[in-house]
Amino acid sequence: MILNHRRLVASFVVALLISSSGVWAQQTETGNQPPATPPQPERPRDPLGRDTPRGTVLGFMSAAGGDKFDVAPLYLNSGLSGQRAVELAQQLYVVLNSRLPVRVNVLSDRPEGSLVNPLKPDQDIVGTINTSSGPLELVVEHVDAGGPVRVWLFSRETLQAIPRVYQEIDLVTLDGVLPQALTGPRIFGVRVFDWLMLFIGIPLLYRLLGLLGPLLGPLVRLLRRIAGRQGGITPHSIHGSVRLLLTAGLIRVFALNVDLPLNERQFWAVIRGGMLIGGVVWLLLMFNRFVESYVQRRVPLGHFGESVALIKLARRVGDVLVVCLAGVVALRFFGFDPTAALAGLGIGGIAVALAAQKTLENVVGGFSLVFDKALRVGDVLRLGGVVGTVDQIGLRSTRIRTLDRTMLSVPNGQISTVNIETLSDRDKFWFRHVIGLRYETTPAQIRTIVSELREMLASQPGADLESVRVRFLRLAAFSLDIELHAYFFANDWNQFLEIQEGLLLQSMEIVNNAGTSIAFPTQTLHLDAPAAGGSKTVDAIPTVAT
C-alpha cells in the first residue's frame, strides 16, 4: 500500500513537471520568461520545542517531571527569575499533573496555534480546570523571547492564579497508603498498582455489579405497583452494557478524587473512554435487536415470509452504522482526525455502489415491493406474459411458480419497473360472453331469449345485481349477437369456473327452448345462369370458420 502511494505521488510529480516544462518552453518561445523565485528559507526551530502550544505543554511536563527545574521556568512568561521562578514552575507542574485535562493530544501542533478565537490569535487555551472561585482557563501565549523565533509560553494571567489553585489541591495520595512495591515500579510510565487494578480490580468490580440484579427486583415491582402496571419481566442481573457504563462512572470518580499523575490519568481516561464507547455500542446493538423482534411480531402473517429477510437486512445495516459511528467517535475521542477516514470511506462507498449497482437496484426494489405491498407470498399474478404464484420474495429476486410448475426467478429491480396484475386480489369475477343467434331468429324470439337470460343471471346466487346486463348487442356478419354481462362473488377461480359452466349450459337450453339455435359462420354463393335470364342463387353452403 505504501509503495502504491509512493508510485502515485511520483507519477503526479512527474506529470506536474512535464506540464510545467511545457508551459516554460512556450513562454520561452514568446520571450516571456518568468522571474526565478528564490527558495524559501526553512523556519528556524526552538530547541525546547516551544514552537507550538502542544510542544510547550509537553516540554514543560517533561522538564518538570524530570526535575529539570533549571529548564522548566523557560516555559513560563512570568517575569520572575531564580528561586521564585523555580517555585512557580513546581506549583504549576503539580496543578497540571493533577488537574490538567487528559486529552493533551488534541492541543494544537501548529506554529500559529489553533486560532479558535480570531480576536486573540496569539493566545491558545490548553485546558480548563475547576477551582473554588470558578473555572480557570490555562492559556499559553505567543510571545517574542528574544531569539530568532516566536515561542509559546504560559501566560502571566494564568500563572498569577497558580499559587491559589495550588493551595486548593487536597487529593488522596496513594503513595502514603499503598506499599512501595505497588507505587514505586512503573511499566510504560504507569505504576504497578494501576496495572493490577486494570487486570484484577476492574473484572472483579464488573462481576460484583452483576450481583446487584436480584436487589433491583423488589424496587422494580414497587415502581410497577405505583404506576399501576402488573406483570412484566423482573431483572435477575444487571446487563453487561449497564455494568460497563457503571464501571466507567466509578473510574471517573476514582480519577477525580485520587492524586494521580497526568500520564496515569491519561491511562484511566483511555480505559474509561473504551468502556463508555463499548457500553453504548452494546446498548444500541441490543436496541436494534429489540426493534427487529418488535417489528416481526407485528408483521401480518400474509407478509411475514417476504418481510423477515428485509427486516434482518435492515438490522444488519443498523448494526454496521452503529459500529462505524463508534469507530469515528473513538478516533475523535483519542485525538485522531477522522476526516481522512470518512473521506476514504466515502470514496470507497462510491466505488462499491458503482460496482454493485445492479445488486443494490435489486435490493432497493425488494424493499419497495414489500413496503408498497405490491407482492405477497401466495399471490397469483400476471407479470408480463407469465402467470404464476409468488413462492418467495428475496433480497435480490422473486421466485414465481408458473402454471407449468416451473420456478421462475425475476430480479426485484425488473419487477419494480413493469406492470403487475395480481389476479388473486380480485374482489369479483367478471362474467362476459356474447351469444350469436342465427339470422332466421325472429324479433319475438330475441325478446324472449334476452328476458330469460336476464332473469337467469339475476337469480344466480353470488351475482352482483347492479352489474347484471343482457342486451341485444349488434347485427354481426353472420349472427345476431346478445351480450351477457355480470360480476359474481366467488372464493377463488375454480368456484367461478363452476358458476360460469352452469350459466353457459343454461344459456344453451334457453336458446334451444326458444326455437332457434346458435349461429356459426356461413357463406352464400351467387352464380350466373348459363342461359339468358340473369343469375340464379345457389343454396347456401355452410362453412366453418377456422
Brief sketch in words of this structure:
By secondary structure, the protein is of the alpha+beta class.
Please characterize this protein's 3D structure.
By secondary structure, the protein is of the alpha+beta class. It has 5 domains: 1-33; 53-170, no CATH class; 187-229 and 236-297, no CATH class; 374-425, SH3 type barrels; 429-523, Alpha-Beta Plaits (2-Layer Sandwich). Helices cover 50% and strands 18% of the residues. The chain is built from 15 helices and 19 strands. The strands form 7 sheets. It has a 5-stranded antiparallel β-sheet. A 3-stranded antiparallel β-sheet has the order 1-2-3. The chain has a 3-stranded antiparallel β-sheet with strand order 13-15-14, with helices on one face. The longest helix has 36 residues, at 262-297. The two termini are 76 Å apart. The model is unreliable at 1-34 (pLDDT under 50).
Strand content: 15-25%
Rg over C-alpha atoms, rounded to the nearest angstrom: 45 Å
Low-confidence stretches: 1-34
The 3D shape can be described as elongated
In oligomeric terms, what are we looking at?
single chain
Instruction: Determine the number of helices (DSSP H or I, runs of at least 4 residues).
Output: 15
SS-based class: alpha+beta
Overall pLDDT, averaged? 78
Number-wise, the strands total 19
Q: Strand order, main sheet: write it out.
A: 11-10-9-8-12
Helix fraction, binned, reads 40-55%
What is the CA-CA span between the terminal residues? Answer: 76 Å
What is the number of independent domains? Answer: 5
- What is the makeup of the main sheet? 5 strands, antiparallel
